[in-house]
Amino acid sequence: MTGANLRPDTTAVDPFVQKMVLAENIKGADSLKRMKNVPAEMKNQLKLMHLLSYEPNIKTSDLKKITCPTLVIGGDHDVITTRHTLEIFEGIKNAYLWILPNSGHSTPIFYKDMFNQIVGDFFAKPFRTIEKTGRFN
Questions:
Q1: Nearest in space to 1 (alpha carbons), one of 77, 88, 59, 111
Q2: Looking at the domain that runs over 61-136, which CATH code has it been given?
Q3: The pLDDT value given to residue 30
């Protein structure tokens, strides 16, 4: 997962971004009411803004239900706070964490080659746990 959030608040979403997106939701809803033929691109953008403003609402405790290996990805300047990405990682037992430096929310686009390589390796190789003295390797 990349750029994921559990809840639509400022503990998960950058406060500036959340305020901006909420304002866009209100403005977009007003625009929709006045338009007869809403362009598909505008509808899609408003759906994304709605998601970031009001969804999801997942309990941190629900992460413990995830048992499959998971790769949690985020940018160090993502719309989703690094602290929140770490919270998701820590809540999933069999998870790897990958935070890309100098990266925003569009990590799969701006780092596509590296992203595809790492994600490909994640699916190709068995999950492993590194514990005790193995952490020095």
A1: 88
A2: 3.40.50.1820
A3: 73
Residue 100: strand, helix, or coil: strand
Distance CA 125, CA 111 (A): 21
Smallest Cα–Cα separation from 4: which of 74, 90, 51? 74
Distance (Å, whole) CA 101 – CA 131? 25
Which residue, 100, 74, 77, is CA-closest to 87? 74
Strand partners, 98: 73
pTM over cut 0.85: yes
- What's the rounded Cα separation, in Å, for the pair 137 and 134? 6
Distance CA 18, CA 127 (A): 35
Low-confidence ranges of the chain (pLDDT < 50): none
Joined tokens for residue 39: 């362009």
- Which is nearest to 18 in space by CA: 39, 43, 41, 49? 49
* 110 and 103 Cβ atoms separated by less than 8 Å: yes
Q: Are 99 and 82 a contacting pair, CB within 8 Å?
A: yes
Structure tokens at 82: 């690094």
